[in-house]
Design a protein that fits this description.
Elements lengths: L1 E5 L5 H14 L10 H9 L6 E7 L2 E13 L3 E11 L8 H15 L5 E2 L7 H10 L14 H9 L2 H15 L1
Parallel strand pairs: 4-5
Antiparallel strand pairs: 1-2, 2-3, 3-4
Helix pairs in contact: 1-2
């Protein structure tokens, strides 16, 4: 029997494990930097950055979906589905579709006009599932990511920090 429930802070370790399993499936487990503590803080602290659902099959953790608010200047309010994952031994039971349906229900309840997500180009089973759901593929768009040194270097170009420091210095001199 399938149960889908909202994740709680008690699920932080489980979410971390499922995230790692997804990364392993995607052939990138060495890319996972997130920790259980960060998941607990970021998902269940004073200012939650995401929501997560846990799918259980006969009481066993079978998968998860992790999503958050997203805003498009063209389409308005939506949800971004960062991860959806079903453990291999639980696939073929409709769990992925059920997780998606629950996220879609949240989008409708919250008057959000879309759900956005990404899929690896080699993940044919997922792509076929998304096509069957009626998803629109945005092939002309490319995902872009900035982190590490690139993020730091770009942030250093922001004059606001310099302006603030100069303003504080001028106020002290007055």
């Amino acid at each position: 029997m399938l149960t889908i429930r909202a994740a709680t802070i008690a699920d932080a370790a489980l979410l971390r494990r499922l995230i790692w399993e997804l990364a392993e499936f995607e052939k990138a487990p060495d890319q996972v930097r997130n920790t259980e503590a960060a998941i607990a803080r970021d998902g269940f602290g004073a200012n939650p950055q995401f929501r997560a659902l846990i799918a259980e099959w006969h009481g066993q953790p079978a998968g998860y979906a992790l999503f958050f608010s997203y805003y498009s200047t063209w389409r308005g309010a939506g949800l971004y589905l960062e991860d959806i994952f079903v453990r291999p031994e639980f696939r073929g039971r409709g769990i992925g579709t059920a997780l998606f349906a629950r996220v879609a229900r949240a989008a409708q309840r919250e008057s959000r006009s879309f759900i956005r997500w990404a899929v690896l180009d080699w993940n044919r089973p997922a792509i076929e599932m998304y096509k069957a759901m009626g998803a629109e593929f945005l092939d002309e768009w490319r995902s872009v990511h900035l982190s590490g040194d690139g993020l730091r270097k770009l942030a250093e170009k922001d004059s606001a920090e310099k302006d603030l420091t100069e303003q504080e210095s001028a106020e002290k001199d007055s």
